[in-house]
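pls read this stuff:
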Amino acid sequence: MLILRAQSTEKRSALRITREAELLGGLLSAYHNRESLVLRAKFLKEDLPYFTELLAEVVSRTRYTPYELDEDVVRVMRTAQKKILASPLKLAINSVHGIAFHRGLGTPQYPVSTTPFTKYLDSESIASYASSAYAKPNIAVVANGADHDDFGKWVQEFFKEFPAAGAKLESSPTKYYGGEERIAHGSSNAMILGFPGSSSFTSGSSYKPEMSVLAALLGGESSIKWSSGFSLLSKAAADVQHAHVSTQNASYSDAGLFYVAINGEADEVSKTARNVVAALKKVAAGDISSEDIAKAVALAKFNALEAGQQTDAGIEATGIGLITGGRPHQMDEVAKSIEQVKDAKVKAAAKSLLDTKASVATVGDLFVLPFAEELGLRI
């Protein structure tokens, strides 16, 4: 996906937009993830009308000029490609998503340096996509700290020109595949062991709060300084000085990817990967105390509530929930669902991961780093 920075619209030049935002003390930014494109403005409360109008104008009336694409956007994308190529961990994250989901969620956030993206992108195709993507069924306008009535009034006024009957962008339901990919890299090493995870809370039946608890239980990073922590992988990594490990569940609107990311020296990454599989088998066998699971439940609940308190993350989750599920992301309900997770569900979740085809991405010294089959994973 391609992001155009603050460019000229039919009404304002890029310079005018920049100067007006600076005069009002506002901050403008844009970014994208695997599911959405986010245009964001931060400003003083009394400037709500101006920035609401500006966002509506940028979305509906941006001028997609060939020279800005060629001179500015392509250059920025080339820089992003170099950053990803220099990071084995980022390469592995892109790889494991591609292995797990193929298209859709598996599409890299930024194409690798060998991808001929200029063959498929030009200003006309971007403008055409924008005209179909920026229709009311595909947009959620979310604010934090604004008066509800005022916000609704300005949104109704400035977004009224958007086609209400525009087609909603549809994609086929996400399907999990699994497999393995190995990429040689000379600077460092990374391995990601991925499995089917939990989708976001707004998805309904495919949401599994026990996956958040299992991620906290496996862990890898201590939440207390100078302590190895209670998680299984942080304890196992106490004697591994040159490898870093973390566990998380990447949740999306209709799917999730539960994965353990490891990076560091090749020998120690290999050792840690084996510790990950051993820890999963330990949980699946029930060889884990109720006290450790209770700690994991508390940490997972705290992480969910803390994420909800972060303005950017909360607004984005609410917007995606409104577009895909028709309801906002309620963090208190997420925390309540995590609180109700019992020991048996956590153990069953670990067993289900071991019984499922894994998604394994390996980047680095392939002479040392193990294959998934050597770890005892199903491929």
